[in-house]
Amino acid sequence: MSSESELPAAADALPEQLDHAGSVALVGRPNVGKSSLLNRLVGVPLSIVTPKVQTTRRRLAGIVERPAAQLVLVDTPGLLPAAASALDRQMMRAAQSALADCDLVLLVVEAGRFTPADERAARVAGAARRPLFVALNKIDRLADKRRLLPYIAECIAPLHAAAVYPVSALNGDGIAELEAGLIAALPPGPALYPPGQIADRNWQFIAAETVREALMLRLHQEVPYRLAVTIERWKERPGLTSIDAAIFVAKESLKGIVIGRGGEVLKQAGSRARAKLEKLLGRHVMLRLWVRVRRDWIDDAKAVAELGAGDCA
Length: 313
Ligand code: GDP
Ligand code: MG
Hints:
Elements: E1 17-18, E2 20-27, H1 34-42, E3 60-66, E4 69-75, H2 86-101, E5 104-110, H3 116-127, E6 132-137, H4 148-156, E7 163-166, H5 175-185, E8 189-190, H6 203-218, E9 227-237, E10 240-249, H7 252-259, H8 264-281, E11 284-293, H9 301-306
Parallel strand pairs: 2-4, 2-5, 5-6, 6-7, 10-11
Antiparallel strand pairs: 1-8, 3-4, 9-10
């Protein structure tokens, strides 16, 4: 294996065999804060977050490195009661495949709430037959913390989780304890990703998602759910990354809504996405957006895969 030309391993490289290495699938009903938790644990806003359901469409792993440990957090689309479109079916497959591949399952719920949709998500999480952990997220919203104990006894204890962590992805409460608990439960083994890598996706993926996030935050009703974003061109210039992104809408009439009067919607979403990308990449970004129509793409499995809404890559 080794040859004289080979560089010695960097001093900060992870050792071959770690005390704890493995992956955790974050699952739950839509909107409980799975993506926010991943971002808080990794310390970088890799996964897009909006107040709307169905923000996350594809699985995305964020990687946390600690001394002698690597924790791979796999974000998934929210578990839906029924899949109506090709896009819905694709999203459910993304969640199921994360559950099939992981070492541990982290079921995310909102502290103090346990709806029928949470119950269904818990059943899916339990069916993975992996050690189950539960994060009670959004404790910052729980006015009366005394409600937590009866809530856990009634709704959470029947899940027979290995551990339950009250947390807030918003303000960071309980996050260190959650991280320590997950890491301790991971088996020894080799690192899953090279040292320094923070995501299993490339920047093009994250940039396309960032554009979609900005549009979802700016648009209403059914429009945000009928958009897909792909990167058409990515060019590194000295001191500047130049990006062309295409926004696909499912019908002609949505085009004008996405562009907005005088291009206002597109302009606002573009500048929001650009600001976030500049922070993520640590470089100046030039972002150009194009709106295109791909009729009924949501109901077309091939289009879902092509427009980067599929779980390929
Ligand atoms: P996901 O659909 O489960 O991935 O949920 P997101 O991470 O997209 O979050 C859904 C909404 O809940 C967003 O508006 C977040 O800002 C909000 N949210 C997430 N975590 C917290 C939290 O700890 N506290 C509060 N108050 N809001 C949160
Ligand atoms: Mg999400």
